[in-house]
Amino acid sequence: MTVHAINGDASFPAAKPDFFDTDIAARLGMEGQQPVRILLLYGSLRERSYSRLLVEEAARLLQTFGAETRIFDPRGLPHADDVDVKNHPKVKELLELSLWSEGHVWCSPERHGTITGLIKTQIDHLPLVSGGIRPTQGRTLAVMQVSGGSQSFNSVNQLRQLGRWMRMFTIPNQSSVAKAFEEFEEDGRMKPSSYYDRLVDVMEELIKFTLLLRGRAEYLVDRYSERVKDERPLDPATDLASVAIADYSVKEAKAGNQ
Prior knowledge:
Residues 37-181 form the NADPH-dependent FMN reductase-like domain. InterPro entries: Arsenate-R_ArsH, Flavoprotein-like_sf, FMN_Rdtase-like_dom. The chain is α/β, with parallel strands linked by helices. Helix content is 38%, strand content 11%. The chain has two domains: 3-221, 3-Layer(aba) Sandwich (Rossmann fold); 224-256, no CATH class. The protein contains nine helices and six strands, in the order H-E-H-E-H-E-H-E-H-E-E-H-H-H-H. Helix 4 links the parallel strand 3 and strand 4 (140-146). The longest helix has 20 residues, at 194-213.
């Protein structure tokens, strides 16, 4: 079952909410925007899963910054090579959530120096193309990891590589929490630390980039090689670049007449 509510607790004991940027769209000159839609994935099924706890903390922040969030529960997800996986309800749910989303957050524990099989399985279930639609292309991505030992960036580096392969816009900032067992209270909430401050930074940045790409991602991922393959020459009346340039020229002309 996909998690929609996060423990019913919207407080932030590890942060100073007075410093939160909760009006990002307005600051970007994009008032009146619909909430950004973010899908969050985590990579461990342990009862006390630190990757899940970090994702839950990220979801609370995203909601405070004006986003709508969904956390995918990977329990019961089959292996990517199982028979007839496309018709499995968990696989369908994951695909539908990716199509719903504008951005993703991926969080994995570091296990044997890399990401877990569980997070990789979730990503493997997201095809590059499904019915002519690319369920990840053009979406933003924030990557995070938790470690049982000292600071490491192996998992976030692997997740970045996967994000590039899935044709996503991975934001520059990232979160890596070392000795994660020391960074959470018994109730699952994160303690105040520089790790928590970085998490806030990452979620703010994800909202900013997702808003900036809204309405532009389709053009940014449009490729010459695919236009040739599809025999789809650019049409000035319909292609996104020409329309955007025309709209910009009209706005500039109106501004010059004022």
